[in-house]
Amino acid sequence: MSTTAWSLPETDIFDTIRTALDDGSPAVLATVTAVEGSAYRRPGAKMLIRPDEDDVGSVTAGCLEDEVRDVAMDALEDGEPRIETWDLTGDDEVWGYGVGCNGVITVFVEPLDESYRPVLDARRAGNPVGVVTVVESETAAAFGSRARFESGQWVDSAGIPDDVLDELAPATTELVERGKAETIPVETAEGDLSVFVDGIRPSTELVIFGSGVDVTPVVELAKLVDFRVTVVSFRGGQADTERFPRADEVLSTSPRDVADLRAWDEDTLAVVMSHNFLDDRLTLERLLETPVEYIGLMGPHERFGEMLEAFAEEDRVLTDDERARIYTPIGLSLGGDSPYQIAYSIVAELLAVAHDREPQHLSRRAGPIHERVELDSDS
Amino acid sequence: MSTTAWSLPETDIFDTIRTALDDGSPAVLATVTAVEGSAYRRPGAKMLIRPDEDDVGSVTAGCLEDEVRDVAMDALEDGEPRIETWDLTGDDEVWGYGVGCNGVITVFVEPLDESYRPVLDARRAGNPVGVVTVVESETAAAFGSRARFESGQWVDSAGIPDDVLDELAPATTELVERGKAETIPVETAEGDLSVFVDGIRPSTELVIFGSGVDVTPVVELAKLVDFRVTVVSFRGGQADTERFPRADEVLSTSPRDVADLRAWDEDTLAVVMSHNFLDDRLTLERLLETPVEYIGLMGPHERFGEMLEAFAEEDRVLTDDERARIYTPIGLSLGGDSPYQIAYSIVAELLAVAHDREPQHLSRRAGPIHERVELDSDS
């Protein structure tokens, strides 16, 4: 088990799945469908297993990966998907090799084939997608039957009856919206089913305005936590992709054209760190014309004050709503002033905003670490 | 200018200085001594310049590094230190290549020689040190005269009069304590001086208990933000350094011997993530016997609740003070549940605790980003 491959961001796992499909090489996908108790990974966590390669991704903190690999090899042999549950409750003595586990973990294991490619394509195109799989069935809907939920519509759903899909639609909508996964029981006249609903979202888009050396550590950290990163330079000469090899995209434009640079939506995060006062001010002005709700601006309070004065000289007064979209000084208050420490504080803020979290110590916060998935459809 | 070398953690910069001294290869050290206005780096920021190598470290966000290199080459030629001030106020049009700068930045530039080695040795040995340099003088104390302040004592201070050192002692004590740097004016009967006081601290010590794959991303991120990282395994077989190549130290012990593992002080941060309930509980118990003030424990609230019950069964009830030292669930609330996202949240908490910061958006916080260095001796 390679620790580097084990901790790969979700985007890299999906990219590896695509490569396996492209190459036509045998591969098995394992997905956590349910956990009880204290588990490291959540439902939806994925691992790709190939006969002669390191496993990619993870389903636990390292304690079940070998067992899952064994199951995957069986699945590869007979070509059939399967589901396995490991009950590690109170198993510390047995599993206690310093990487002990707790909880009950259920994993769906499936030989990969081309039917999974549309999921990869949807995610790459920036579209959320729900992948729905029958994992227990007393009905004619066979174990492993699958449907996709895209743009509010069921697609490729031949194996699952319409009434089941109808009942799953509200929960699936919500799970896809939140990028969460859960196993849902469905009662039908014919009998009961359990359906695993995997809400898969594209990475959150991050657009960084600036091409200085200090952009590099921000890109590096942002990629590790799986943002999709676009770097925008205002000087074409500096915009070559080689300077930001880890960025997904490197663009060049003029600050005046920022609003037209791309499709902007409210979930896209913008970081303004050109260090150039004029460029930053124009970028800020243009970004305020877009639906972007997070605009992080590097520099001290005083610099933003000067920017507001410059706006005022052009009779432009920011509304309270506009002010609330601007985060300056950028970043969380974590202290430290080295390049990586500054970048760390910025990306910590991006994570908190992307996940709609109030940054605070988890230990000082009420409630569970992971938001409980409480579906409206439960009520 | 290599962006990787530009953003190197301080420890790596000091290590590169040591290598240059060991090799006897020509090298120049540049240190920011003062900034006014909006500057990316703070006083004390360092860059090492060598004739045929990439510069290491940084003094600005990339806009002055080339100029500083030129000055360094001059210093290498005549063997003399110098100080230069760049006034970039309102210079956006000139410096505005997408990496514009603001503010007034003063940099002390000195050819490196063996006299700097004790600074490296002190830091490596875990001892804070003050490096005091005359950067302006109307007196007999020559420009570039230097003294060190170690364990409350002046060392190698031949070039600076005792009365000046006496006056500098309180401010130096405080700057060393806080790891900050500042240029301080001193008035003497003979005339005025400016003295740059560089408070250099060793990296904060981080000790991680656990040897699972999920430890690796925590080590990686912690090293980027310059913690000194020790990984402690409870199973000798897993403790080989190869598994954690980025850790400074990999140790193996029994949970019962944790308190005697090393010298513990209140500034050392401990992270408990063996995943093994028994090992975690014993480690926690032993750590509470040490002065360590931050003990981060991985796992949900419920798991800690079970641990408290296990303590209670042995008639061990934690005091409020003990409870306050335990951070569980570990990490800041940033959302996300991939291995790097979990590690990111942990290291964000470590940074905030190490710097005594309340984690919150800098934009929502009153006051400057960097704590103003207000010396008691000013009053």
Automatic annotation (TrEMBL), chains A, B:
Gene3D superfamilies this protein is in? NAD(P)-binding Rossmann-like Domain
Origin, by domain of life?
Archaea
| InterPro entries per record | MoCofactor_Util/Proc, XdhC_CoxI, XdhC_Rossmann_dom
Q: Domain XdhC- CoxI spans what residues?
A: 21-86
| Record domain XdhC Rossmann: where | 206-350
Per its record, how is this protein called by name? XdhC family protein
Q: Which organism is it from?
A: Haloferax namakaokahaiae
